[in-house]
Amino acid sequence: GAAAPDLGGLGGLGGLDGGFGGFGFDTPELGNRGGTQSDGGPLRVGARVRPGQPLFTVYDVSAWYVQAEVDELDAPALAAGQQAEVVLDAFRGQTFAGVVESVRIAAQPSLAGAVVYPARIRLLDAPDEGARVGMTASVDIVTAVLDAPLAVPSRAVVRRDGVEAVYVVRDGRAEIVPVTVTALGEELAAVEGALESGEAVVVTGYEDLPDGAEVDASRTRDDGA
Fold first, then answer.
1. Average pLDDT of the segment spanning 23-52
2. pLDDT tens column, 166-191
3. Whether 82 contacts 100, CB under 8 Å
4. What is the C-alpha separation between 85 and 96, in angstroms, rounded?
């Protein structure tokens, strides 16, 4: 998946059938309900305003979007229609389905100085209530799906003597098995090599592990290699 940390924020877009979000009221009757005018005083009927001055903001909350900043290294893999998973910091433990609606062709600098491309993700199952414009979100976008017969934890893949390999536990000993990585994700790596489904692979503590060394099987993890 292509994602960027601390991505974007929510924004309601579309028609004008939502509430008035800028000043915190729900009717178009301004009256003496607060807000600002050009001199910093309260907004009220008869107050002096200047041309182009924003008076209030109207949000359509019938649809919610996440504005994601995608790193330039991941941007070429993005396309409209890709599925996404969205996590909102304000809704702990919940994941919301989304779909990429657009990816901007022009780059913009991020706050950290990196080059990013804004992508707009529409939430398919937005929170029933409590969502607010500007909330912090993070996004995982599915850019490709590979049907692979063998997969190992990504951190099990090591590089030994210039080739990629996996430590496989056989008869209580660690055996280096060269593999070809056909796809690499954050959690799993699709591989080809002399592995059998269900074999245990070493995922930690292999930094100085020689080929054929005895290993404690209780400290390895069987992830269905």
1. 57
2. 888 888 888 888 998 888 877 888 88
3. yes
4. 6
The pair of three-digit structure tokens given for residue 165, joined into one six-digit string? 């390999």
Which residues lie closer than 8 Å to 118 by C-beta, 6 or more apart? 8, 67, 68, 69, 70, 103, 104, 108
What does the block give as tokens for 180?
């070809």
Three-class secondary structure of residue 217 per DSSP? helix
State which amino acid sits at residue 61.
V
Q: Helix, strand, coil proportions of the chain in percent (round to 5)?
A: 5, 40, 60
Distances (CA, A) of 6 to 3, 55, 97, 116, 217: 9, 30, 17, 13, 38
Measured distance CA(12)–CA(109) in Å, rounded: 24
- Site of tokens 């269900």: 198
